[in-house]
Amino acid sequence: MEETQLPGQPEKAGCANCGSEHIVEGYPTVLCAGCRELFIKYPVPLSIKIFAGAILILLLSSMFSFPKHLTLGLHLEKGKQYEKNHEYKAAQREFELVAQQLPRNVEANGHLLIAAFYNQDFQTCYKASERLDNINIEDNELYQKMSAVTARAGDYYADDSLAVFLQTMGDSSGHIPDTAFRTWLTSHPHNVYAMLSYASNLYDEANYTVCDSVLKDILKFDAEYTPALRLLATSQREQQLYDEAILTSNKILIINKDAGYAYAIKARIYLKQQKDALALEQALKAVEKDKSDPYNSATLALAYHFNNQPGKRDAVIKEAQALNDSSATRHIQYALDVINKKENFRN
Amino acid sequence: MFIPGFIINAVTFPGVIVHELAHQFFCRLYKVPVFKVVYFQMGNPSGYVLHEAPANKWQSIMISIGPFIFNTIVAALIAFPASLPVFTFGNSGPLDWLLIYLGVSIAMHAFPSTGDANVIWQELKDKNTHPLVKIIGYPLVGLIYLGAVGSFIWLDLLYGIAVAVAIPNFIISLLA
């Protein structure tokens, strides 16, 4: 498999191929113009042309599925880039597109599971994990990440024993006495979800100092436990610890840049500080990141209200009310109460 | 694992054919007459192109290293559409595997042979060769020999796989 150069030939009377006397000077091989052209265009045999043609046909056949594969490949790659950049909403959108087309694909479902976890979309998380049942995951790094988030996902739900406790101890409004919580936590000291429920109880009672202390204990177990950071930022806001509240919100955004609710928390902090223009900016970002979260829509309505844009405020409220969802109703009702001065949002 | 070269060449014969076509293509590009082409044979060498020595040393080097450029591009083009279903999505069919085989075979034969290195070496020894050509040419010959030695540790196969897998992935990451 090589190329061999023909050495220069001794001078002959005529062309080495046809004997013609009209040779072209200046070349090592004595050839006439016609023969030189003939050898330059040395023919490719038919068998080789057929070989090349066959490859071309194979290549063209594969081109039918190529656009689809290329599109999916691009979605997968974009998803990975978003994931690397902690933009988990955008990442989840990309991975979902791939997983819809290739439901048993390990990479798409594995990364989808991780992105959905950070978006606290546990239904998608579960579906992705279900699709990977009985599939061997060879990518060890991906497997480790999936295992880690799967293990952490347990902290976002009440386990059986906590569920029984919450059901038996809660009054008609679901409120549980602090003493009952403290007693239960003594025997279950590492139950993160129980600690969060306790902190939430304390927040409702405006017992912010103890609430913060419990939340900080949770963060010692898992510094990236965003429900604790979310509640902590809100608690800090209520205590007028605005700088700390912004710092805590930013911690959420470091974990997940697409956490729309973190922008909404910041917007409400700025509204409290009467930095209304800044608040509107953050509220718009919150809705841009996650329009489906009614907390974000309610925050935007509040931001429009305090920025004296009643038209836009009412449009947001109308749109959120159309969702007819209990969570949306609760958040929008709060915004309406603030607007109608039934709730004292800022002094 | 040692496998005799002629067996490897026989299994990856599409790569040998494309390698010789690459030499021929560069000869035609530089208007260098070609006197004989053996695209594939069961022997040593497994293929060759007999052509006139070009007056221009650069052209001579380019004809020798032509397969490295040509085979790499052709292999990447062939493997690209199949690479995603085979290596990323795991939903490949026989056609995809056939294209990957062709891509890897062709890329495996991208390295210039020691015969090609000898041609460059002869050109470099010529006292009329420009020093710049020598500066580039001598390391090139060294690299080609290194590649030949590397084939004992399957460097050519590794290169083939890299072209079939890495280049498509690189293009995807650039486009994304």
Low-confidence stretches of chain B: none
Separation of termini of chain B?
39 Å
The CATH architecture of the largest domain in chain A: Alpha Horseshoe
User: How far do the termini of chain A sit from each other?
Assistant: 87 Å
Overall structural domain count of chain A: 3
What can you see in these coordinates?
The complex is a heterodimer of chains A (347) and B (176). With 347 residues, chain A is mainly alpha-helical. Chain A folds into 3 domains: 39 residues, no CATH class; 91 residues, Serine Threonine Protein Phosphatase 5, Tetratricopeptide repeat; 180 residues, Serine Threonine Protein Phosphatase 5, Tetratricopeptide repeat. Helix content of chain A is 68%, strand content 1%. The longest helix of chain A is centred in the N-terminal third of the chain and has 19 residues. Chain B has 176 residues and is mostly helical. Chain B has one domain. Chain B has a two-stranded antiparallel ribbon. In chain B, helix 3 runs antiparallel to helix 4, helix 3 crosses helix 7 and helix 5 runs antiparallel to helix 6. Chain B is globular. The model of chain B has no long low-confidence stretch (mean pLDDT 88). Classes of the chains: A mainly alpha (347), B mainly alpha (176). The interface between A and B is large, with 45 and 60 residues. Strand 1 of chain A pairs parallel with strand 2 of chain B, so a sheet runs across the interface.
Describe what is shown at a glance.
The complex is a heterodimer of chains A (347) and B (176). Chain A contains 18 helices and one strand. Chain A is mainly alpha-helical and 347 residues long.
